[in-house]
Structures are given as C-alpha cells and as structure tokens.
Write a structure and sequence with these properties.
The protein contains 17 helices and 11 strands. With about 475 residues, the chain is of the alpha/beta class. The chain has a 5-stranded parallel sheet, with helices on both faces. Strand 2, helix 3 and strand 3 form a beta-alpha-beta unit. The longest helix has 21 residues. It is globular.
Length: about 475
C-alpha cells in the first residue's frame, strides 16, 4: 500500500516550518499553523507523512493532555514539550516541530455543559505567550536567561470556532482549512486499495458510491476485507488457544495473503458501515434515558469566541459560501405589553369578621425612592407576555427549519454585541417548525433589550450557513 499526500497540504506544512527556521528581518511569521476540517480526512496522518519526507522530528501532545486534576499541569507540559523540541534541534541537528492533536477537544467550548476550567485558561494563555515570545519560554518557578530555539507549532482540530478568539487571530495562528477535492480523495483511496486487484475504474466507482464519507471510511472498509481471513484463523486455531498462539508460541505470527475482493463486496461492506452510522444518528438513546437532562443541552451550539465576517463585525472563523453572508433585516419590535389589572369587587364576608389584608397599604410613591425601586423589581419579576411572531421574522425562520437546517438562536446585550460575543439561547432541529417558533417567541419576550439573531446550521457538515439579526433593542 502506498500513501498519497496532497501537494497543497505538503506545501502548506513545508512553507510554515521552513519560514519559522529562516531569519526573515522585519517579517512577522506566525508561530502556529492551525489545520482544521471535518473528521477523518487525514490531517494528523498527512502531517506525519510530510515530517517523514522532510526529515523532521515531531514532539506530540494530545488534546487529552490539555486537562489535568492539578491546576497548571497542562500549561507546564506545553512549556516542557516546547523546550524539549528546542533541545532536539540542538542535539540532532534536524528541524523539529511541536504537534498538538485535536486541540479543540481539549481547549474548546462546545456547549453549555463544557466546563471552562483554570487549565483551559492557562493553556490558551500559554500558547499565546509562546506565540508572542517563541525564544523566551520559561518553566514555572525558574528563569533561564539563554534564549531557546524557535520551534514551529502545528495544531489540528475539527472546529476552531470553539477556541479562544485571541489565540486564533492572524499573527499568532496561520489557519488552513483542509477538505480534499474529489481528485485528491480518489488518489488517496487508490493508494489504500493498491494490491487488492481493483481496477482504477472500480476504485473511482467505489468513491462515487459513497461521496459524503471521509477518507477514514475507506480505510475501515479495507480493514473489514480481512475479517474473513481472521475469522478462519480463529476457527483453525481454536477460540481457547488463540491467546497462546499469538503471545506464547515460538512460531511466527500468521501471514495472510492479500484478499481480492470484488467491487460488489466492497459496496456491501460500505453499506454496512453506513447503516451503523445511521443507527447512531437515529437512536438518540440519551434522550430516551434522560429526556430533561443532557440531551437538549448537548445539542446546543455555543458561539462565544468566534471570528469571521458577520454583520460587519469580527465573528466566527468558519468557511462560508458566497451566498451565506448574513443579511441584517429591519427587525420587528417585539414589545411585551402587560395587561392592566382590573379591580375585583370585594367578596361578601360574614358580619363581624374582619377581612385579613393580603398586602399592606402602600404609601404614595413620590419622595420614596426605596419603595419605587422595590416596585420596579417586583414588576420585572412578572412573567413576560409572549407575542406571536410577525410575518417578517417568520419569513426568516421558516425557510431555515423547513430546508433541513438546524436553527440556532443567539442573544447579546449592547456591550457584548459590540464585542461580537453572542450567547446561545437554544436550538431547534430541522423540520420542527412549531418548536422553533415557540423558542423564538419566548426568546424575544425574555430579551427585549438585547440583540437576537438566527443561525442556520448544516447538521451534516456542522457548518454555519447563514446568520440574520431579527431583533435590535429600541
């Protein structure tokens, strides 16, 4: 089996590494290269292949190492690994990089249930500090006056919109969205199935049969091809003797001849894999076991730190299509009108029995600021009157849910709006028009003094398609 590495992927990684080892006067070079994209497209795997081609040593950090029971340990680990990579350059005389895998899984915020810990803050602050001072990386509690070697950092992840916005800004991180083209995907799969006796036309037909699957899907398909050979080995050896044969026997491990599957067999294997994917998406057992708990909150998309062009402000860093630019519309004012309380005629009471006073008589409001404040607070605690959506807002909401997009509702007061820091209010699944309308009506009634916007989210690609503001404070 031969491996195919996209030339544009190789070029991006190579240019970033070499630029950081060159001395370019008065040229700001970002220390961090962020490679993001959909799962299973070979981001980390191709990085390792490029490192092997260029003779580069890599020091690895997993996203799972960015959290610890002890505060400060992940930040210290980052500094240790960075200095370790710097020492490797001196000792071995070869270029070295620091590779952080799945950084969004360790330092990102996905929903309201994601805990933002001290370690998350320290990891973000440490990476920003290293990016700003790459030759002055000190360990906690010590100081070394000798500068360290500048080491390029490469991070991989799926959604960098969940990361701290100042960390991914231009100047600190050079961002590269990786999504293989149809030709690149075909070359990768052709290399995977080399030696299995498949013609190029059959490989192309196999890729066209599963157009929405990642590259790893075809790797899993090839692994399934060997299941029959392994099953036959277990039957020949005996289930009780397999462990002794593989671990205690002096015989060499069994060697299997390359299977020669047909195109139809591969399609059947792929269909079985797709069926398992569909079962996971459709079951939603967590909703059945805990309908009022984690299921609803886990589906919400929190956007607090994003970057990108959104309504003329610095928003989330996501790839938008040309038709996916948010168009702010003149929002209909959602004013909650409180009904006037009508006086109720006093009930007849038995003679001689005094009627208890439910509330004390209040003195006049004029000249009594404390009492005015209490009444204002009491009024603010009354339930808001939900108003039905107007035709303009409804025309923005209905196409989103009816066209198969997940609806996100986000709010921001004036201060957070100016900072482009939106808070997720809730989400609605595709084709749930009644649920979406009810959530938006409640949101508008509860946030009269806030900006409210709708977000259309592609549920398959986990990508924002459109954002539109439907309410602006008066």
């Amino acid at each position: 089996m031969s491996y195919f590495v996209s030339p544009r992927f190789t070029e991006k990684v190579a240019v970033h590494v070499v630029k950081n080892f060159l001395n370019l006067p008065r040229v700001p070079v970002p220390l961090i290269l962020g490679i993001h994209g959909k799962k299973g497209e070979g981001k980390t795997f191709q990085c390792n292949l490029v490192f092997e081609q260029m003779g580069i040593d890599a020091v690895h950090i997993s996203g799972g190492e960015l959290e610890s029971p002890d505060a400060g340990d992940p930040a210290r680990l980052l500094r240790l690994r960075y200095r370790e990579a710097s020492d490797m350059v001196k000792v071995r005389g070869r270029m070295c990089v620091l590779l952080i895998n799945d950084i969004d899984a360790g330092a990102g915020r996905f929903d309201r249930l994601t805990q933002y810990t001290v370690n998350t803050q320290l990891v973000n602050a440490t990476l920003m500090n290293i990016a700003d001072n790459p030759t002055n990386v000190q360990l906690p509690g010590s100081y070394d006056s000798e500068p360290v070697r500048r080491i390029p950092i490469i991070v991989t992840g799926n959604d960098f919109g969940t990361l701290y916005a100042p960390l991914i800004r231009d100047g600190r991180m050079d961002k590269f969205y990786w999504e293989p083209t149809a030709a690149e995907r075909l070359e990768v799969v052709r290399g995977m199935f080399e030696g299995l006796g498949l013609a190029d036309r059959a490989v192309a037909e196999l890729v066209e049969t599963f157009p929405n699957q990642s590259v790893d899907f075809f790797g899993a398909m090839k692994s399934r091809v060997y299941d029959d050979l392994v099953r036959q080995f277990i039957q020949d050896t005996g289930l009780a003797q397999v462990s002794n044969r593989l671990l205690k026997s002096k015989e060499a491990l069994p060697q299997f001849a390359e299977p020669q599957p047909t195109l139809e067999q591969l399609k059947a294997i792929g269909a079985a894999l797709v069926k398992e994917q569909d079962r996971i998406r459709e079951l939603h057992l967590v909703a059945a076991y805990n309908p009022h708990g984690e299921a609803n909150a886990a589906s919400e998309t929190v956007s607090q730190n994003g970057q990108g062009e959104t309504n003329g402000l610095q928003g989330r860093s996501r790839p938008y299509s040309a038709t996916a630019q948010p168009e702010p519309i003149a929002a209909e004012p959602a004013v909650a009108t409180h009904t006037q309380t009508q006086p109720i005629a006093p009930e007849a009471k038995p003679s001689g029995v005094p009627r208890p006073k439910l509330e004390p008589e209040l003195p006049p409001l004029s000249g009594n600021p404390d009492l005015e404040a209490k009444l204002e607070y009491r009024s603010s605690q009354r339930p808001k009157l939900v108003q039905p959506l107007g035709p303009t807002i409804r025309s923005q909401l209905v196409p989103i849910v009816n066209n198969g997009y997940r609806l996100g509702i986000e709010v921001a007061d004036k201060r957070h709006y100016n900072a482009n820091s939106w808070q997720c209010y809730g989400t609605a699944e595709p084709h749930q028009e009644t649920e979406a309308i009810g959530k938006l009506e409640t949101c508008l009634a509860e946030n009269l003094d806030c900006y409210v916007r709708l977000v259309a989210i592609d549920p398959d690609r986990k990508q924002r398609i459109r954002e539109v503001i439907v309410q602006r404070p008066q």
